[in-house]
Amino acid sequence: MPLLGKMRVLPLLLLFLWEAQSHSAPPRPNIVLVMADDLGIGDPGCYGNRTLRTPNIDRLAKEGAKLTQHLAASPLCTPSRAAFMTGRYPVRSGMASWYRAGVFVFTAASGGLPPSEITFARLLKNQGYSTALIGKWHLGMNCYNKTDFCHHPLHHGFDYFYGLTMTNLRDCKPGEGTVFTMAFKKLVFIPLQILGITVLTLAVLNCLGLLRVPHTVFFCLLVLAGIILVVFLCFLHYFRPLNCFLMRNYEITQQPMSYDNLTQRLTSEAVHFIRRSTERPFMLFLSYLHVHTAHFSNRDFAGKSRHGKYGDAAEEMDWSVGQILNVLEELRLADNTLVYFTSDHGAHVEEVNIKGEVHGGSNGIYKGGKANNWEGGIRVPGVLRWPGVIRAGQVIHAPTSNMDIFPTVAKLAGSPLPEDRIIDGRDLMPLLQGKSQRSDHEFLFHYCNAYLNAVRWHPPNSTAIWKAFFFTPKFTPEGANGCFSTHVCFCFGKFVTHHDPPLLFDISKDPRERNPLTPATEPRFHEILKVMQAAADEHTRSLPEVPNQLSLGNQLWKPWLQLCCHSSGLSCQCDREKYDARVSR
Question: Does the keyword Hydrolase belong to this entry (predicted)?
Fold first, then answer.
């Protein structure tokens, strides 16, 4: 080709390449998902708190978008996290209980997130992302033996795991009380009292000659009492080491776990993961133990807040969020990283320690809290930042769900959604980028464990947001804002009040849920309920029959599933932690 011809072709080639580049897909972002445990929507400063210091969470809201009606798919840890990981209502995967206990309390339980479920971690890993979970899992560990790890994070798409497979509990920290008070009363103290009264009564009758009681009867009753007492003492002695331990991938690193500098250690692990993942896209799920009881914080935060141990823990968590933001900026990754902050559900308003100190957080103006579907139990912080993509300072009032993260990050990573199952979440990006003013959720369904508790309806071309309750928990004592007599609200039987017709609210006008509507106050009352009932029926028909992962059999402790860092007996005492002090305040 003559030189002149080549010179004419070259500009055309450059123009073609420029056009192709301008129309190509934007680079896939890094994903940082941050989840607090039991944090109320009224706790962060960006949601109105003026006495709890959360400058780093507030900074995310200022530099990104704040969701004011962001909803947990369940008001309890395990089912909410299952929904978050899979983008599906937890009842679809069997991760919702029909019984009182709605979460796992033993690491050696056989239930957990089924291997057949697809998490966003698995989708992103298949797209070449480096994936890590730092902190709390609470979705099970083993199925049939202590080495199958069928529910473990590494079997659900994570390349790296450091943290707890269960959860933080008062029983994990000496001197902080127990979550088993009611169980101890019913299974230990009352039976021992009955046995004691029985033995005393039989002895008196025997002495008076009114009834001849063989010695074997006394012996059997005393043996039974002794067995109950020994089992109780063994439980108190072994629960902490057998259930409260840290793991790195499949290896136990600290059993029982120490709370010393625990948040600093989790933060260090998260920072190091980011530093070693700069060569390809990464997804970090940082799942804090804060602010679930037992509360803890290191000396830099202990006693520094205006809200006691709860406030100390919340402010330490905010510091940790700041460390993550700092390393993203240091490595010049901030502009290509989507950061999301939320809580797994509302604050636990009934959380009071043995000294009578309130250890729960704030749900702001909203009624109820953890374990119920009043707005205080399911409306959670939802903050997203992605500089240059999500406009800074946005406030979005449309109903959204924590299930929406699944399709959102899947699409950003270039992954198609699974076609063999229903995905209940919706992509948030059109809403976050201002391409849509409405959420794709017309209906949302609120579950109390496995029971359909309420329906939310945001009709097209309407500002109304209707919420209908089929039943509500009985708060105790009367007039309280929670179920203080049972520590959490339950979902069936004598613990609830059923409503026929359902209790109807317009959340857009009555977010505090104080004034239920009636045919006299809402002319379309019956029409609205008819539409919502039809939606609930259609939704119910879409639910498959699946094994219940939170059945009593799956929740029970099984010795053959118990992990222990020593093979001899149940001593289970080890500390292989090497705290890296490179992350400092």
Answer: yes
* DSSP state, residue 480: -
How many Å apart are CA 324 and CA 337, to the nearest integer? 11
79, amino acid identity: P
Would you call 215 a catalytic residue per the annotation?
Answer: no
Residue 12 has pLDDT above 60, yes or no: no
For 140-144, 184-188, 565-569, which range has the lowest pLDDT when averaged over its residues? Answer: 565-569
Q: How far apart are CA 480 and CA 483, in angstroms?
A: 8
Determine which of 23-27, 167-171, 364-368, 441-445 has the lowest per-residue pLDDT on average: 23-27
Q: Do the strands 160-164 and 246-248 form a parallel or antiparallel pair, or are they unpaired?
A: antiparallel
| Strand stretches in 228-310, DSSP E | 246-248, 251-255, 282-287
Alpha helices in 105-214 (DSSP H): 120-126, 181-184, 190-207
Q: Are 109 and 558 in contact (CB under 8 A)?
A: yes
Distances (CA, A) of 109 to 240, 505, 558: 15, 39, 6
Triad 90, 91, 97: Cα angle to 5°: 95
- The candidate with the shortest Cα–Cα distance to 475, out of 338, 403, 371, is 371
Catalytic residue among 46, 70, 77, 458: 77
Q: Is 18 exposed, middle or buried (0-12, 13-18, 19+ CB in 10 A)?
A: exposed
Mean pLDDT of 240-266: 96
| Cα–Cα separations (whole angstroms), residue 504 to 276, 472, 501, 507, 510 | 52, 12, 9, 9, 11
Per-residue tokens: 257: 């776990």
Q: How far apart are CA 467 and CA 453, in angstroms?
A: 10
Q: Indicate which residue of 70, 138, 441, 446 is catalytic.
A: 138
Rounded (10°) CA dihedral 532, 536, 542, 545: 180
- 120's tokens: 């966003």
Residue 511 has pLDDT above 50, yes or no: yes
The residue among 491, 382, 372 whose CA lies nearest residue 47 is 382
The runs of H, that is alpha helices, within 262-304 are 262-275
Q: What is the pTM of this model?
A: 0.92
Q: How confident is the model at residue 569 (pLDDT cuts 50, 70, 90)?
A: low
Greater model confidence, 565 or 271: 271
User: How many residues appear in the chain?
Assistant: 585
Active site residue 77: yes
Burial class (CB in 10 A: 0-12, 13-18, 19+), 569: exposed
Confidence class for position 140, pLDDT limits 50, 70, 90: very high
Q: CB count, 10 Å around CB of 191?
A: 15
Site of tokens 């508790």: 453
